[in-house]
Amino acid sequence: MAQSAIDIFNRASQLQATGNFGEALRILQIAADNGYAPALQRLGDTFSYAIGVEQNFTKAFEFYYRAACTGLAISQYKVGWSFQFGVGVPRDYNKAIEFYFLAADQEYPLAQFCLAWCYEHGVGVEKNPQKAKEYFEKSAQGGMDEALYRVGENCEIDEYSAQTGPYNVIQPLEIE
Fold first, then answer.
1. Where do the domains of the chain lie?
2. Which DSSP helix (H) or strand (E) runs through 85?
3. Which domain of life is it from (predicted)?
4. pTM
5. Is 93 within 8 Å of 83 (Cβ atoms)?
6. 12 Cβ partners below 8 Å, 6+ apart?
7. Which of 120, 132, 144, 172 could form a disulfide with 139 if both were Cys (CB 3.0 to 4.6 A apart)?
């Protein structure tokens, strides 16, 4: 009986944990060849972080991209990050934003944080403090401590508003 891609992936994870990187790489490739997105993601990490292999950002990007095309949010974020910083691929802010949006739409907090930062600084998008605030808040609600700090840091007194008086203070976030 043939093993499922999940079983193969789990076996590769066990092998990596025990330091048997060569066999883990071989088995991960089998799961990846069967289209199992987490295996593609893990192969990207294997080459990005040099886990038992020589570091190769171009190869890492290729695996992240293949996983991102299946809809895996973490890989979409990593592809966006690679495009933003030109790691393993030429820098392209427009493509970075595109992939950040794909992951952020799945409520992936790191992608939401990166979108917030891009809106805050006008990188790949028009500078928009309101959009930055919106994405920092989403990221904070997803558990990103740095985003929570940024939300608190950005609690500034806005311009005078007839509805709220001279101080329109941002409401505290409800974090579950």
1. 1-86, 107-176
2. helix 73-85
3. Eukaryota
4. 0.81
5. yes
6. 24, 25, 27, 28, 31, 39, 42
7. 144
